[in-house]
Amino acid sequence: MPEPALSGLRLNLRIVSVVSYNFASYLTIGLPLAVLPGYVHDVMGFSAFWAGLAISLQYFATLLSRPHAGRYADLFGPKSIVVLGLCGCFLSGLSYLLADLASGWPLVSLALLCLGRLILGIGQSLAGTGSTLWGVGVVGASHIGRVISWNGIVTYGAMALGAPLGVLCYRLSGLSGLAIVIMAVALLAIVLALPRPKVTASKGKPLPFRAVLGRVWLYGMALALATTGFGVIATFITLFYDAKGWSGAAFALTLFSAAFVGARLLFPDSINRHGGLNVAMLCFVVEMVGLLLTGFAAAPWMAKIGVLLAGAGFSLVFPALGVVAVKAVPQQNQGAALATYTVFMDMSLGVTGPLAGLVMAWAGVPVIYIAAAGLVAVALLLAWRLKKRPPQEAVSSSPY
Q: Could you report the per-residue pLDDT of 148-199, keeping only the tens digit for each?
């Protein structure tokens, strides 16, 4: 049963005990991330296009399946969806193992790798959405902001740990060894999840997808606009440093990640205390200042401070807006709302790279950070408009 009275260390431990399943799912994503492109291109002999496609298939599968993951979590309960998602992560590892065994038939091997990436994308959307809703069910809806924050922390932690660990496994035992490690991680998570009590799915007639979208799309648009800042830093900070003739781009990325995780750890109760939209607006201001400092940086220290501020500002945007978006729908639709809201971040990350690349080719690298700051400013205005909107409108708005 939910225990809203939980607080402090006990509350955090309860949350981590559930979102750890999302850690496992993201670990299965991080482990092959630095290995597969080189394996497809250098070992199998396919072009860079196919190497990139093998990685991108997972993101497309996640994007397309995420709304369904939320709806199924509402219908069948989040625990069942988490276990199903972890099974997908296990099957992705099995596909990599079969691809290595079929290395004598390159087309078959590539097809098995691509199949594994598709299954992984679906598995992650199920495990990620389900673990958040499971955590909310365990500790109570009043702590939803903290659950979302911890989910983000374990996500980044798993990705940071998984990539170097995957490279080490590949060097020691090849793709087969890496695949077995992925399968073992997923299987262990499944074994630990199965004995845990279920959180009962909410009763009540669910809203149609269009109605859910109508209630959360403005929050999703604000998230998408703010996500462009993260996208241009993660994708182009190395080119930015090269264009300036500086070294230390990798350290700048470390600063961004440290600020992101640090802000979530330092301000766990800020959303409950000050409200999601208030926190989001403050975050937009900090992120915008960071992006402008980066874009106008005349020295490496200015860029590093800018990246640090951008990471700290972006950190709480997702949980702050997510709390408000989820509360805009009835309880039986919270999974669908969270998944639909998250799709806007997925779409933003998918679109930011190519568009920023075009802008960069036309006007230079620093301009993309200034342009991203302008988009975050639009997100700030949108959040301010949402805050001024009458409460009854926020609850009742839908395309009907």
A: 778 878 887 787 788 788 888 988 988 999 999 999 999 999 999 999 888 7
15-30 average pLDDT score: 88
Which tokens in the block code for residue 122? 């679906």
Please tell me the predicted confidence (pLDDT) of residue 289: 96
**Distance between CA atoms of residues 390 and 379, nearest Å:** 19
In whole angstroms, what is the distance from residue 181 CA to residue 179 CA? 5
Looking at domain 8-193, its CATH architecture is: Up-down Bundle (1.20)
List the structure tokens of 11. 């509350």
pLDDT at 19: 87
Query: How far is residue 20 from each of residues 23, 153, 332, measured CA to CA in Å?
Result: 5, 10, 24
Tokens for 41, please give them.
């291109």
Q: Tell me which fold the domain 209-396 belongs to.
A: Growth Hormone; Chain: A; (1.20.1250)
- Higher pLDDT: 1 or 315? It is 315
Residue 278, H or E segment = helix 276-295
Neighbours of 42 (CB within 10 A): 10
Place of tokens 């978006």: 325
Query: In the numeric block, which tokens belong to residue 383?
Result: 């959040």
- Tell the burial category of 159 from Cβ atoms under 10 Å away from its Cβ (0-12, 13-18, 19+): middle
Domain 209-396 in the same topology as domain 8-193: yes
Reported in sequence order, the residue ranges of the chain that DSSP labels E, i.e. its strands, are none
| 132, 16 Cβ separation under 8 angstroms | no
Predicted pLDDT at 398: 34
Per the structure block, which two tokens stand in for 300? Answer: 């490496």
Tell whether the model's pLDDT for residue 393 goes beyond 50.
no
d(CA 179, CA 251): 30
Placement of tokens 């920023």 in the chain: 356
CA nearest neighbour of 23 among 192, 176, 145: 192
Each residue of 316-337: pLDDT tens digit? Answer: 898 889 888 888 777 767 777 7
**Three-state secondary structure along 63-91?**
HHHHHHHHHHHHHHCHHHHHHHHHHHHHH
Please work out, in degrees rounded to the nearest 5, the angle formed at the alpha carbon of residue 72 by the alpha carbons of 69 and 74.
110
Q: Where are the domains of the chain?
A: 8-193, 209-396
Residue 96 has pLDDT above 80, yes or no: yes
The whole-number average pLDDT for the span 36-42 is 78
Statement: residue 399 has pLDDT above 60? no
Q: Annotate 375-388 with DSSP letters as a single string.
A: HHHHHHHHHHHHHH
